[in-house]
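Deliverable D5.2: sample structural annotation.
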Amino acid sequence: MKCPFCGADDTAVVDTRINDEGDIVRRRRSCKVCDKRFTTYERAEIRLPQVVKKNGSRTEYNRDKLRASLELALRKRPVSTEAVDAAISGIEEKLMLLGEREVSTQQVGELVMRELKRLDKVAYIRFASVYRNFEDVDAFSKAIREVSPRKK
């Protein structure tokens, strides 16, 4: 592993830890040339389907884009990073279980909506307001009623 600071090839693993689920390995490394430390993560490379945009173009699935969307909706909401990681893993698992080589952005968006509805109702409404592009107040009110507790 090359040092990200000086580019040297001579690095050593100082510490190795496996996360609770056992699917990610975290390694602390030290450069023998510049003596700086850095962290690397190992995870199994899983081939997720390509994403087909509304205009028909195709792009590789991007975990960072998914995370950014979730974090934007969850901004200043009381949801832990672990819960966000679990939601992303859940979405990816569902995408893999589809068994498709391509999925539409709409399919991905619906999976995100389900996870946000489970995680945080306010974040769900935030995401839905952009994703569903509400045309009027009635459509927005309907989405709010979906997540509001039912009165008996």
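Annotation notes: The CA atoms of residues 20 and 115 lie 21 Å apart. The first helix runs from residue 63 to 73.
The annotation will be released with the project's public dataset once the embargo ends.
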